[in-house]
Structures are given as structure tokens and as C-alpha cells.
Batch of 4 targets.
Target 1
Amino acid sequence: MDVKTRIPKLTTTLAYDRYMAGQKLVSSVDRPWRHLVLRSYLEPDEQELLEAPGLQDLTLMTLASGAEHLERNLNGRWESAELRVGELWYVPPAPISWRWRSISDEPLSTVHLHIERSLIDSVADQMELGGSCRELSLGDAMRFHDPLVAAMLSALHRAASDPADSRLYVDALVHALAAHLLQHYSRGREAGTARFEQPERLVPRRIRRVTDYIRANLSADLTIGELAAQAGLSSFHFARVFRRETGETPHQYVTRLRLEEAARLLRSTDQTVQQISIAVGYENASHFSVQFKRDYGVTPLAYRLRG
């Protein structure tokens, strides 16, 4: 059967993996993340032709290592670019053909980020964008430069490789990335012209409501949306205002409280490390131990023995 007859016009993010040519290095599919999937691949040094369907989800790619001469065929027209680490390209929601060759002695590896359209729409609602300003104009971007987007993709790539990074941290990152893309790459506006409604100030009473909720639910899988609801703000505004008022991001604040409670339990109870990790909201003891050692300099068991 001819390859073209086997490739649909659109597919899902989960199914997209079967069309990739490289060896998968990292995947967030089994992580409890919402609204996004991130994968990275070790690519062949040369690919004569790779054909893939389009995706409904917003898809960005970048190089994690190496450099390449990349060509794509979109709507019957070939175009090319030389790409290096830190440069980005966009995968439009239409069938596309790719071919490439490495132009570096380093291994060629790529990072693929897929963001659900529902998240883009949700953030656009929070930013009070309507009409054409909700649509991203990245369709012709064979290659584009945006250091902030590149840094966010790099941070998400590291998070996918690190079991100690929490869903709250990833949730904040992807919301910020969606807001940045809408602000700078929306149709019908010039870059930097997005106008944000000034958020209501988080008065001490509202801060106490959120922090009390966090303390009472350290074992729960807390999300930005859940904490924002306690403050009576949109997710987008909440993260900004919370940091302004407390000096910490929600992720930093929750992590600090979880580890402080874990340290208290290690000192004052005979609960096992596994029991304590669950009590303070970590998926398992190994994830908890990595984060605890990162912040306290010793493993939970060594901390307990030290007294």
C-alpha cells in the first residue's frame, strides 16, 4: 500500500509518536500532567523522507543537541532552514513531509511539545481575548527565534526527565507559555500589544485562605486552577499575584511547605519514609527523597538519623 494512503489528515498527539523516525529518549505520557505531552528523540543523522499527519494540538519543536538542515513540504511547497539549539519550529495542523541531515558532529536530538487546544482557549478566556486574537499566527513559521519560548521548552524537557518535578510546577509553566504565545503571536495584533486586566489585589485574608487550604491538603494533587479558585481569581492572574504577594511561585510555596512538614514528621514520628512521602503529596518515596535531598542536602533517612 502506498504510504500516503495510510496517513490520515489528522491524528491525536498520543498516536503521533508512531510516525516519528527517531529513538524516543523522554516522554511525559506516563506523568500526571494535564494539557500537554512532551517527548524527545535521538534522530537519525539523515532522513530522506518522513510523512506525518496534522495535529489539532498546538505543536512546537526544538533541538536539544546538534544542528540540522531541515526541509518541509507543506501544501506542495518545499522550504528549508538550518536549525540549531535554541531555535524553534511549528508543526501546522495539516499533513506534512519532512527530510533532514545533520550538520554537526554532535548527536541530533529533538524536543516535541504538544499543548491541547482547550488550554489555549482557557488562557485566552482569562486574558479576555476574543475573535482573531485567540488564533495563533504561527502557520508560516518554518523557523522562529524566541528565547523565552526556548527556555520554557527546555524547562519542560528537564521536568519530563526529573521525577521530583511536580505537576504544579509544570502546570504553571504551560499556562505561562500559552499566555506568552497568545500575547505575542495572536492574529490581528502586533507583538507586545496585549492588554491585561489589572488583577484584584490578594489581600491578607485571601492569602490566608489559599495558604490554609494548601496546609490542609498537602497530600492532594494540587493544581493552579484549584488554588486560584480558593483565591477567587483566574489561574493566569493568580500565579502572578501570588508571587507578588508572597515572594514565591505557587509551586515553590507548596514544595517548601511539603518538605517542612516532611522534616517535622521525620523528627517527631516513627512513620516510614514511604508513609511520610504520601502524607506530604509525593507519588512515591524515591521522588520524595530526590526533592528532599535537593533542598536539605541529605536523604530523609540521614536527616532522621542525624536527629
Target 2
Amino acid sequence: MPSFSFLLRTAVLSISLLVGATACNDDTENVKPKAADTIAANAALGRAFFEEGLNADTPAARAAGFTRAVSPDYQQYNAIAPPGRDGLIGFVEEFYKAIPNLNAVIRDVFATEDRVVVRWTITGNVTGAPFLGVAPSGQRLEFDVIDIWTIRNGQLYEHWDQFDWPRCLIQLGIQGLPAPFIEAAARPVRR
């Protein structure tokens, strides 16, 4: 005679199979992503923007990473960045011309079913071309950025961002900024 634990395991397995079979009414339901899968995929997409795009070693590798992660009809809402995916790629290359050792350090990634938010820190030294019109003199930059994207068809579609421009401008050596900006930028950053 089978043991009680064997019978219990068999009953649980049978119920699980029955529930699983009735949960999907047709084959298309089996391939629909669950909300948690979509959230995880969107978080991964936000990370890929930096890992495969922004932090890639060469312009060609960065362009390839952005082409994978960013929609061809990308909507850019940063007032100083050119529009579209090609504008983004060119904008990033201008950063690299000024800051050849540019690096993005991801601090947080938050995702929903249709958005991803990444909080990150840009680091590097201005040793190449002028940055934001400021001549290079080896200025060390370390300031924070928050990017927000909507997701469409598995790619980053609309983009908004917030840069810590006061801290950046002070690190670039810009004089005459309002005292509250100077005082705030002098405080240690809590990341």
C-alpha cells in the first residue's frame, strides 16, 4: 500500500497540473508575458542602455548598443540633445570627445510595465574637446543624472532626464553661479 506522503504528493501534483491546464484557454496565452516578466525586461533594457551603449569601448559598439536598446523613432525631451536615436548617438559621442574616460555608474533601476527609470553617476575628466563650451583642463567630473524612458515594442521610446547641472558647472570651473548652488555642490553626495 502506498504511503500517505506519496499519496499527498501525487494529489498535489495532479491538482497543480489541472490548475495549470485550465489557466490557459488557448496557445496564445502561454506566450503572453506576465507583468513581472515585462518589468524585469524593462529593467534589463534600462541597464543595457548603459552597459551596452554608454559604457561601450568604441563609437561603433556604443552605436550598436543604442540601436538594440533605443527605438528608431526615439522621442528626446532633453533640450540640449538633438532629436531621435541618431541625435542621441551623436550627443553621446560629443560627451566622449570631451571626456574620453567617461564612465556611467548605475545607482538604481526602477521599472514598471511600460517605463524604466535609472539613477546614475557620470564620471570622467575633461581632457579632449570643450565640454558644454568650457575648455578642457583636466577637470574631474562626478555628478548625478536621472533618466526616465517609456518602453514601446521592447525598446526605449520617450526620454526625459535631469542632470545635476549646478554640480557639473562648478566642477567645470564656471564662476558666478548663485551661492545656493555653490553651497549645495560643496556638500558630500549621498548615493
Target 3
Amino acid sequence: MEAKANDDDLSPSSFQEKEEQDNNDDADDAFIEINPPSPSPKKTLGGLNLGLDLGANGGRQDEDAKDTSETGALVREAESEVMIIFELPDGSQTEESFKMGQSVEVLKSFVASEIGMDMEGQQLYLQDKLMFDPLSLMDFPEIVASRGEDVYIRVEGDLEGETRK
């Protein structure tokens, strides 16, 4: 029958082997190599450089400069601005700049807050065309074609009292 060495075995040879093993473990812990981060860290998968830049901007590139796709063009169009001049029922005018992607409802909300005209009672007309709430300014070819020119929108409905402008 063979005796197994354990932690309680205090023979000189087993004690010396255990001490050397403990010293080796401590030596491994003492030398930890820390590499400084590279200036432009790249995402890797299994050692393969995928070329994904994870720098300060989260890897995103300037979309306006890089995105020439149809979607990018639509986003740029929706973010562009147009000056809208509202012709009110009493003959006065008010104006505001809006993004092309904003809806007719946003325009009605502006008129309601600026003039005090109830949104449900408003009707907006571009030339003689009624502008419906779910549509955006980009849905009207006349506005898209205006490029930098002011757009006049006629507001119809009941004004309560005097206008604010």
C-alpha cells in the first residue's frame, strides 16, 4: 500500500517541494505585463483585425461625409431647414424655420402656440393644396423644389381675438 503525500506530511522532501511550488506561484504573480493601449484600438476577432475603429467617436464616421447612399441623402434632406411664412386669416403673417422632415401637425402646433388658434380648427394650404397632418414637408414637391426660398402657407380657421404677432 502506497501512502499519499498531503499538506499534513511534514517530511523534509515534501515540505521543500511544496515551498518551491508556492514560490513559483508567487513569482508568476509578481510579473504581470501591462501593455499601454494603442492610439487607435481596433476590434479583433480570434486574432483577425477587422479594421473596426473603436476610437473616441465609438467607431462611427462622419455620416455626412461618408454616407452617399440613398438613405443618407434622405436623412440629409429631412434635416435641412426651410423658412415657412404663415399667412393668417386676419391678413397678418408669422414665420418660423422648420426641418423638412417635420410634419404638418408640427406646423399646426406652432400656429396654435404662437397665435392661439386651435389645432383642430386649422387648415393649412400650400398654394391651393390642403396639407394633411400625417404628411411631412418633404411630401410636398413644391416645398422640396423651393431650396432656400421662403415658403408661404395659408392658414384658415377661426382666430379668437387678436393675433399675437
Target 4
Amino acid sequence: MKSPPSIRVLTVNTHKGFNALNRRFVLHELRDAVRAVDADLVFLQEVQGTHRRHSEGVARWPQAPHYEFIADQLWPQFAYGRNAVYPHGDHGNALLSKYPIVAHSNHDVSIDGHEARGLLHCTLRLPADGALVHAVCVHLGLSEAHRSRQLEHLCALVRREVPDGAPLVVAGDFNDWRDRAHPVLERGLGLHEVFVKAHGRSARTFPARFPLLRLDRIYVRNTRGHRPLPLPRRPWAHLSDHAPLAAEIAL
């Protein structure tokens, strides 16, 4: 009997290419670490699109947007959702994919006057059988009241744009240190968090060097199985303020 197809996913807040204290530009090392995981889908948050000041003053700053620089030739497909725009540049969420991205849309869930936040929804086509998989890259706010409203937006987005029976992966930086998202997403959408299912708790990811808070997540729906993938503490602890998460998901 043929085993079901599986995909490997990675999510990481890139901290705009700098280490946790913003003292060192580490995008090149970050790209190497992302490559080493060999994920099929890479969910990126706080990824830099453009930054005119840094492009002129930071050594080894790439000419291409950071998501494109990381994707290089390993992930031929990528989508970018610009969340924050300022006079000298922009940043947001991105999805890198080894599979064709047949549609994508970015949804602004920012609360007026506060942090710019977004939901990047991509529809992917698996080459083997042409099946469609949906992926949503998430970055929620620091305020619990804002996150509650943003989770409502996420639920509405999935109900509106994702068919009930389609495989779905929702991953990213939820900033949900009180674990309030789990019941909302499980009751509202039937989503299950990979690390909660495997270990009873979501993974500690912040701060990256000595993780205490459980901020980052990988949720799934309509999958045959899933398991967390261990990642080494080094070099990841020195590449962002968030530790990454990875999982193998059977479709």
C-alpha cells in the first residue's frame, strides 16, 4: 500500500535579518540554517521586503528582498504579504514553497494605531496528484485584546476561503504566551497544534537563547498524521529572537 504524501514545514520569525539584540546582521547564516532543514514549505514572519537605509549602510545586505534571498533556487515559488510600510522600507510575512503556489492573498489584521500584522493565505498544488493544500502564515499582535480580534479574523478567513475537506496548515508567530489560541482554533476551525498533540504543550520558542514563552505554532487540519521535528539549538539560538519550529505532516 502506497504511503500518503508528506510535507515538511518550517516556521521562523526572521527578526528582519538581525540577531536578537539587533547588533549583528545574520541573514546569510539564517539562510544556511533554513536550507539545512530542507522544508517543503517555509513560513517567515518579520521578513524584510525593502530597506533603503540598511541597503546603503549594512555590509552584505542583499539586493533582493530577504524572502527572495532566502528562497534562492531551493524554493522556486514564494509569496510575500507586506504588513508594515514606513518611509525607508517594508516588512511582513512570506511563504516559500517547493510546490506551485496557484493563488495567494494577504489580509491586514492590524489594529489602528498599533503593530502592523497580517495573515498570508496561499493555495498550493501538489505535483503528484494535483491536490490543493492551503497554508496561512500568521503574525499576531502583542496585546491579548488585539490577538483575540485577530483570531476572529483568522477564523473568518478560513471559513470563507478554505474548503471544509482541504488540507490546511496554519503556522507562524502567534505571540500567544497564555495559550488562548488553542481552544479558539480547535472549536472554531477544527485545527490541532502539532506540538500540543505530541507533547501536551506547545513548544517554548522565546527568547531563542533561553526559551520560556510558547509563542510560535504549527496548526493542521484534514491531515493523516503529523510529528514535530527536532532542531538543534545552534545555530538557531543566535539567528533571531524566536526559535524556529518544524514538523512532518502526512496528507
